[in-house]
Design goal:
This is DoxX family membrane protein. It contains 19 helices and no strands. It is mainly alpha-helical and 372 residues long.
Length: 372
């Protein structure tokens, strides 16, 4: 009961923080629209929820989600198929570092060439340093050279930038991305893997002249190896916070901009419902996905819903900057591989399932496989 109370307190604090941050940060929808006339939040929500049809649609949708989850937990259909599915995804654990490097490195390179700092809404007046930073850090991560150190530098740069420009909270997924990369290292294929393999072989000349591998890199990896099991937890929390922020702060708390997107792309012609229902439905869906990630419930299913949301955005909004979403695409893909990990509802539910092998219980790769 204590853990439940603490969890509720954390979620409540998070909602309050996001509501405050919404008043200072630029909305995600500004990627595709210059903005709109301000709409009073309380009046918008009261008006949207006062409509019996809107309320019925949201109520039926919520009940359907709860009923589906309860039915799955009660019936546990196709157990062997589910076990095989989890086992196959968990077998990709050795590719996790490479996936994380792509997820963070690619958008950073794009940000560097485009001249913005992590998020398209943050474009410094003198972008030379920003360009060099994004290109250098992005390519080093893609190449896998000095991976842990580069990830730490990127994390510090993001946090410093966030303290100066709160709009960077829109790219908060970089935090779990950098932390996860710092924990798992470069993996394979990477330059770090090549260098580590050569340094670990006493027969090579390089092994005798490398002053870094045995004195610094290897001890660091050994001391932090136990933390790799918490990578799924880090990813869940970071991605979950991002989704809640997008759903609550960027849609429900700024309905004017969200309504402008619905109008610009005539989304009511795709699904003939009121624009207010579009905004509230999208906001609540993203917030629900975020909560599922944070508590680690149905993590892989939530990742599938996230993929659907991303795909709809990318193909439905033709002028949306694709690079701005690659990081979330990659991190959600990583959660498909790892599952919920430690401190998750999924872990508690699956603990008694025989034959289930999650990423957090699979053997840890060797030093040569992870690299520096």
């Amino acid at each position: 009961m204590t853990s439940v109370v603490r969890g509720a307190a954390v979620l409540s604090s998070l909602v309050v923080f996001l509501a405050v941050a919404a008043s200072r940060a630029s909305a995600h929808v500004k990627y595709v629209t210059p903005g709109s006339d301000p709409v009073e939040v309380v009046a918008f929500l009261v008006g949207a929820l006062a409509n019996p049809f809107n309320l019925a649609v949201l109520g039926v949708g919520g009940l359907a989600v709860v009923a589906t989850g309860a039915a799955y937990l009660g019936l546990r259909p196709f157990p062997n198929d589910v076990r095989a599915f989890r086992r196959v995804l968990a077998s990709y654990d050795d590719l996790l570092p490479w996936l994380l490097r792509l997820a963070v490195g690619l958008p950073l390179v794009g940000a560097g060439f485009s001249g913005y700092f992590f998020s398209p809404v943050v474009e410094p007046a003198a972008p030379v340093f920003v360009r060099l930073f994004g290109i250098a850090v992005g390519f080093l991560l893609l190449f896998g050279l000095g991976t842990r150190l580069v990830a730490a530098v990127g994390l510090v740069a993001y946090l410093v930038g966030l303290a100066v420009e709160p709009a960077l909270f829109l790219a908060f997924e970089y935090v779990p991305g950098f932390v996860a990369i710092a924990l798992v290292g470069g993996g394979r294929p990477s330059a770090d893997h090549v260098v580590a393999s050569m340094a670990a072989d006493d027969r090579t000349v390089y092994a005798r002249i490398d002053p870094f591998y045995r004195r610094v890199a290897l001890p660091f990896v050994e001391r932090t190896r136990h933390l790799e099991a918490y990578v799924p937890t880090v990813l869940r929390l970071g991605v979950g916070v991002t989704f809640i922020y997008l759903g609550i702060a960027q849609k429900l708390m700024q309905p004017g901009d969200a309504l402008a997107v619905v109008s610009k792309y005539d989304l009511t012609a795709v699904v003939p419902v009121a624009p207010e229902l579009w905004v509230v439905g999208a906001g609540l869906t993203e917030a629900l996905v975020g909560v599922l990630f944070i508590v680690g419930a149905f993590t892989r299913a939530a990742s599938g819903v996230a993929f659907l949301l991303f795909t709809t955005t990318l193909f439905g909004l033709p002028d949306d900057p694709v690079l701005a979403h690659i990081s979330l695409f990659g991190l959600v893909s990583a959660l498909l591989v790892t599952g919920g990990g430690p401190y998750s509802v999924d872990s508690a539910l699956h603990r008694g399932d025989a034959g289930v092998t999650d990423a957090n219980t699979s053997p840890s790769p060797t030093n040569g496989e992870r690299g520096y």
